[in-house]
Amino acid sequence: MTLTSYLKQRRFWEIGLVVGLMTIGMFSNIATEVIDFERNDTGLPSSLAWILEGTSHAALLLLFPVILWFDRRYPLRFADWRRGVMAHALFSVVFSVLHVVLMFLGRALLYPAILARDYRWDDVLGQFVYEYLKDFRTYLLFLSLIYLYRFVLLRLQGEAGFLDAAESEPEAPPPADRFLVKKFGKEFLVRVDDIEWIESAGNYVNLHVDNKVYPLRSTMTQIAERLSTQGFVRVHRQAIVNAERIAEMSMFDSGDGELRLNTNARVPVSRRFRSKLRESIGVEQTLN
């Protein structure tokens, strides 16, 4: 599989990766607990291990998108690391509470049905402290894996940056016409005219260029303002297109729509940005 093909189905593979890692972790813990039951001759059924680990990992899987959402709002950045660390430290408590509640509800349903007894905590505070200590380690592990994955993906894709005037040669085109892409220790230029469309990606925007994707640390508002005079128009909260690359436009009864670019890429159009798109590419084009 090439990087380009992976990026085209990135969300599918990312979901599969998370589910796969969770499944491996669950079965590994179940096997360990069953072995401990037998080694210590506890007389506990193996179904108990399935209930304990199954409910815990199912809850973690449901909460993983919540961690991603919170990290987008409070990312860990070197320039503002104290704020990010404090925010995540506090949110780890919320994460643990949600995990405990989901886990408890699952066990409260499964214990009577499978083990013919109720699931309860005699020492609620002590049990929660115990669970939080485990959840805090799990939260740190999740964050570490998320940032490691992003780091590796950025290194494979190459990261784009605005080319400063000091970096350009005297005979070179104006710096605003180009982006500097760093990839595997090498640097090369990407012309703004070659960008087909731009997609929001958390703390980054993804520049789509000739079936390649280059992340750029910027917001959609910043990049839209910077490129507004160069033929780019925002068509969606998460998308900006090069007007010269638009091949076809379809509008739906809801007021939203979809653009087909000359590369056959499909880009959503929201009702909010429809009038701006009309102004940018001409009313006569959008009505056909």
Layout: helices, strands, pairs:
Blueprint: H1 3-8, H2 10-39, H3 46-73, H4 81-115, H5 124-157, E1 159-162, E2 178-183, E3 186-191, E4 197-201, E5 204-209, E6 212-216, H6 220-227, E7 232-236, E8 239-242, E9 246-251, E10 257-261, E11 266-269, H7 274-281, H8 283-286
Antiparallel strand pairs: 1-2, 2-3, 4-5, 4-8, 5-6, 7-8, 9-10, 10-11
Query: Could you give the distance between the termini?
Result: 39 Å
Count of helix runs: 8
Tally of strands:
11
| Low-pLDDT segments | 165-175, 283-288
Widest sheet: strand ordering: 6-5-4-8-7
Mean pLDDT: 84
Globally, the shape reads elongated
The major β-sheet equals: 5 strands, antiparallel
Q: How much of the sequence is in beta strands?
A: 15-25%
- Helical fraction equals 40-55%
Give an account of the 3D structure.
The protein is α+β, with helices and mostly antiparallel strands and 288 residues long. The protein has eight helices and eleven strands. The strands form three sheets. Strands 6-5-4-8-7 form a five-stranded antiparallel sheet. A hairpin with a 2-residue loop joins strand 7 and strand 8. Helix 2 runs antiparallel to helix 3 (46-73), helix 3 packs antiparallel against helix 4 (81-115) and helix 4 packs across helix 5. The longest helix is centred in the middle third of the chain and has 35 residues, at 81-115. It is elongated, with a radius of gyration of 25 Å. The model is unreliable at 165-175 and 283-288 (pLDDT under 50).
